[in-house]
Design a protein that fits this description.
The chain is built from 21 helices and four strands. With 498 residues, it is mainly alpha-helical. The strands form two sheets. It has a two-stranded antiparallel sheet. β3 and β4 form a beta hairpin. The longest helix is centred in the C-terminal third of the chain and has 31 residues.
Length: 498
């Protein structure tokens, strides 16, 4: 059976857009899933990976039922569109259009819906990086659709969908503000509301599998070709420039971060190289196709130095950071990195790059358009302020209105994965279930442990089932005693030189 393609369809653009979207999806699943699983202590690998995996699926359902049109549909208010479903066949097959922005694309609406979904999903997964190792999973299940609705969709419409910041002239090529600044803000604020990890997890937070981290980091890096290369909405010359600049900035940032580690700690760090890679990816995101290659190098230099200083010096000497437990330092990599990139875009955007991307902006400060810098700053302030308020309101709503604790009990946190999911990442070790067996044997008098659905919702571990009670410890079974993970004096596993 043959079909006739509509006149507006460009098969090359459609193929590239679907490919780019798939690259971004792979950044989340499996990219961030395995990155998180390797980054945390082994007792938290399952829970951390599952938070990312759940968010990916939950965002998609919310996206097609109401959130896509809220972010990219007809304008309801200057900062939000009219929510509504995007699931009818007629809607999926028609030509893609962003009505409030007055833009059309040469591929179907279904392609646009999926492309924008993967960006929404990765934003929630990035936020999870701040909450790992203690957030009540049921609270996370509620947080995802609420934050998507009341925060992400607002930023996306305001900047991309034709809202007031779009009309003001902000340049956010692929989500430096919509994704990274918002996730860095929401992660930091939410981490404050949730509270810190238990003391032993703060003292001993050594990653359980750095090799697995590198796998996830590699998927994240290469997947960013679709992240930035897909945003011209066409297989255009500017898409190629965006991909090249993305890789140049990322490489520069990672190398600079390693050099900073060598200078300060006297040795290179693999985790440091990954952090520098992430900050480079974040910084180039708002600028990818509008800056020249030398601008990408400059942004890579800035994203290798400024977030490094924020994380390794500011975090240790500023009291603000000592009161918030941001598990994977999302604030430093995404909030600070996004500001470097966003303001850097106002400085280094070129007239030629803006024109190639379809913008009327006359470049940035280097081309005589100093106004672009303050437009970038004003837009950043809106995203930061909105996320501080709405992340706080959502956390308060979950905790005090829905009566769901934001944080697991200390008893559940001590055990980790097996207390929450009855699953372990390394089942041959019996590490987590041994802890749970100990709690059960010590007695059902521990009020922090509850059975059934209520115990799960309230973030408390259920006692060991009879079939697992008395499971022999690894030392009894294999002649091997589980060894405590080595602690480190800082997040890179390095100590400052004397």
């Amino acid at each position: 059976m043959s079909t006739t393609a509509p006149d507006w369809l460009d098969t090359g653009d459609n193929a590239w857009q679907l490919t780019a979207a798939s690259f971004v999806a792979l950044q989340s699943v499996p990219g961030l899933v395995v990155l998180y699983a390797g980054w945390v202590k082994h007792k938290w690998a399952i829970n951390s990976a599952f938070m990312a995996f759940y968010a990916f699926g939950a965002v998609l359902i919310c996206w097609v039922v109401w959130a896509y049109k809220e972010a990219f549909g007809k304008q309801m208010l200057p900062f939000v569109g009219v929510p509504g479903p995007a699931v009818t066949m007629d809607y999926e097959l028609k030509q893609s259009v962003l009505p409030a922005a007055g833009l059309t694309q040469n591929f179907p609406q279904s392609t646009m819906v999926y492309f924008q979904f993967v960006f929404a999903a990765i934003t929630l997964i990035l936020i999870a990086g701040s909450y790992l190792c203690r957030m009540n999973f049921f609270a996370w299940m509620l947080f995802v659709p609420l934050w998507l609705t009341f925060s992400y969709a607002i930023g996306a419409f305001s900047i991309w969908g034709g809202g007031f910041l779009y009309k003001l002239g902000v340049i956010d090529y692929s989500g430096g503000y919509v994704i990274h600044l918002s996730s860095g803000t929401a992660g930091f604020v939410g981490a404050w509301w949730i509270g810190p990890r238990i003391e032993e997890d703060l003292d001993d937070n050594t990653p359980n599998n750095i090799t697995l981290m590198l796998v996830g980091a590699g998927i994240l890096w290469v997947g960013w070709n679709g992240f930035n290369g897909g945003d011209p909405y066409a297989a255009s010359p500017d898409a190629g420039a965006a991909v090249l600049n993305t890789n140049v900035c990322t490489a520069m940032s990672s190398i600079v971060w390693v050099l900073m580690d060598i200078w300060y700690f006297q040795r290179p760090s693999v985790i440091g190289a990954i952090q520098g890679m992430i900050t480079g990816l974040v910084a180039i995101t708002p600028a990818a196709g509008v800056v020249a290659g030398w601008g990408a190098v400059a942004l890579g230099l800035g994203s290798g130095v400024i977030p490094w200083v924020s994380m390794n010096l500011g975090k240790r000497h500023l009291s603000l950071f000592q009161h918030v437990d941001d598990t994977l330092d999302v604030f430093h990599t995404h909030f600070v990195g996004a500001l470097v990139g966003g303001i850097g875009t106002g400085l280094f955007a070129t007239v030629e790059g803006c024109a190639a991307f379809g913008l009327t902006n006359p470049g940035g400060a280097i081309d005589g358009n100093g106004r672009q810098v303050w437009v970038q700053i004003v837009s950043a302030l809106f995203i930061i302020g909105w996320n501080i308020v709405w992340t706080s309101l959502i956390m308060l709503f979950i905790k005090y209105v829905l009566r769901v604790p934001l944080r697991m009990s200390d008893a559940a946190c001590k055990i980790g994965d097996y207390a929450v999911h009855r699953e372990e990442s390394y089942t041959f070790a019996y590490y987590n279930r041994n802890l749970l067996s100990d709690e059960s044997r010590r007695g059902s008098t521990n009020n922090d442990l509850e059975t059934g659905v209520h115990g799960i919702i309230m973030g408390r571990a259920a006692p060991e089932s009879p079939s697992h009670a008395g499971v022999p410890r690894a030392s009894d079974d294999k002649g091997i005693t589980p060894v405590k993970d080595g602690s480190s004096s800082n997040d890179n596993g390095l100590e400052k030189r004397d």
